[in-house]
Amino acid sequence: MSLRPRVTFTQYRGHAVVTPPTIEPVTADELRAHLAETVDGLPYDQADDLIATAREMIEEATGIAMINQTWRLVLDCWPSQRAEWWDGVRQGAIADINGAPDYVYLPRYPLASIDAVTVYNDAGTPASVVVADTFDIDTYQKPGRMVLRNGATWPIALRNSNAIEVDYIAGFGATAASVPPTLRRAVKQVAAYLYSHTGDDCTPDDALGAAGALLGAYRVKRI
Q: pTM score, two decimals?
């Protein structure tokens, strides 16, 4: 008898912002003070655009969420749920033999809370999962995890694609003061680089390099 995986262990993961942050971690006045610039030299709309661009570039490069924001993670299936084995006929999930992860990582961090978990049956009908009864929420990991509780089972999700939706909040808090000073300074330095290189053919790596040392501590190390 041979044990062969029917499909790859790699899960399909869709990920999109649902509710963006309502404020930025740095104000236009703070950026102008950093640049020793005047309102005439850097109007509010231009300063706000530079700050938002810098913040988005940093968040995309590191996986960080600075100000609280809501994201949706979409999965086809729970971990290894569809990795079947067989000896001519399907025998069941290979996870029954070698074990499978009992958690799902939420890509943006720091994880603040889980808003909702929704699963779909094969007819596309949604059902809400009682998160507190099914999962323990690990906000210490970077990124955070949604861990299956002892004695709980993965909620039934039968739709062939996008069968699971997880809405969650990530961020250091709802105010700029909740964002670590190092990250706020990084936003100013990247925004300053973008300002001083307006019209240049600079790349995101060039701009982020202006704050590389500051961001090093916030990049998730993967082996």
A: 0.83
Residue-wise pLDDT tens digits, 158-192: 999 999 999 999 999 999 999 999 999 999 999 99
Could you tell me which residues come within 8 angstroms of residue 124 by beta carbon, excluding any fewer than 6 positions away?
A: 159
- What sign has the CA pseudo-torsion 67, 68, 69, 71? positive
Neighbouring residues of 182: CB distance < 8 A, sequence distance ≥ 6: 214, 217, 218
- Return the structure tokens found at 114: 């889980």
Q: In angstroms, how far apart are the furthest CA atoms of the chain?
A: 77
Report pLDDT digits (tens) over 24-67. Answer: 999 999 999 999 999 999 999 999 999 999 999 999 999 999 99
Structure-block tokens of residue 13: 């993961």
Q: Which of 76, 95, 69 is nearest to 6 (CA)?
A: 95
65-91: pLDDT as tens digits? 999 999 999 999 999 665 554 445 544
Q: How far lies 23's CA from each of 14, 15, 66, 176, in Å?
A: 25, 22, 10, 8
Phi-psi region of 199 (alpha: psi -120 to 50; beta: other; left: phi over 0): left
DSSP structure class, residue 180: -
Amino acid sitting at position 116:
A
Q: Six-digit token pair at 64?
A: 């960080």
Cis peptide before 181 (omega within 30 of 0): no
Q: Are 214 and 185 in contact (CB under 8 A)?
A: yes
**Edge-first strand listing for the sheet containing 13-19:** 13-19, 69-75, 164-170, 111-120, 126-128
CA distance 49 to 135: 39
